[in-house]
Amino acid sequence: MDELIIAVGLNENVMRDQNPNVPITPDEIARDVAACQEAGATVIHLHARDPRTGAPKMNDPDQYLQIYHAIGKVADIPVYPTYPTNVPANERYQHIVALAEHSACKLEIAPIIGGTTNLVGFDPQTKQLRGRDLDQTVLFNPWSYMLQHMEVARKYDLWVSHDIFEPGMVRNVVTMWEMGLYHRPMLLKFFMSEHMPFGFPPEPRFLQALVDLVPDDLDTEWLFFPFGVSYRTAREMWTWAIAHGGHVRVGVGDNPSGEGYLPTNAERVREMVELAHSLGREVASVAEVRARFAPIKVAQAG
Fold first, then answer.
1. pTM value?
2. Does residue 233 register a pLDDT over 70?
3. What is the span of the domain harbouring residue 226?
4. How far apart are CA 255 and CA 235, in angstroms?
5. I need a surface site. Which of 107, 194, 257, 260 has the fewest CB within 10 A?
6. For residue 302, is it within any domain?
């Protein structure tokens, strides 16, 4: 796809002491989604939050339904939720199913992590691990879970957004493609972090290595996702991705700080629009993104 997809990580689990602009309540989230769409965003990712405390409500169907109803009043853009990895397998996708079965929500995207990895923070100053119980660092997503989630995507006619943390996750996706499990093109989100020791660090040569793992016949688009990356590094990598045919994800949920200021999501989207134009690339519309991920009309590999 020649036109740039700008995805937004709207809020994740960021709290207001990290960035006062992070949206938390359904109405705040809806207003922020509308502002991002007006600025040029074409895909939105969000987490449900407790409106009073801001605490994550990762797979709460009722909270997500409230959010989607609020968004539907002010914006028309593909929006997809997260899902937790620390709950029983039969509960992980309950909110996805609830949204898919509620026609007014117009869920279009199924989030599916591409496999299993370790996620833990590392403090380069103290040289110590941080942020997680070391018995709870595994982002556990075995093949049985992936296949179950792929079945949900097909049943409800959703296109798939894959979180890719490790090179092997690309190979998992290729395997599922060869198995004939996709009825629509998919989006590969390449997570890269400076201070979390998983996968590749955020450098152009490593992003190129991930891109090189994607076969020519895989019907996909890919984007760079700075997962806790300094603004300077993120800007370098966004620039490389845009210049090399990829797409970008931005947002205060992923990186709450800017360079010397605390941005809004819409400000970050406008920055990407300006960057794309400076590099001679047009920005995709919502209609163009929906057309790109429309059902596949030809037989796929396998």
1. 0.96
2. yes
3. 6-292
4. 11
5. 260
6. no
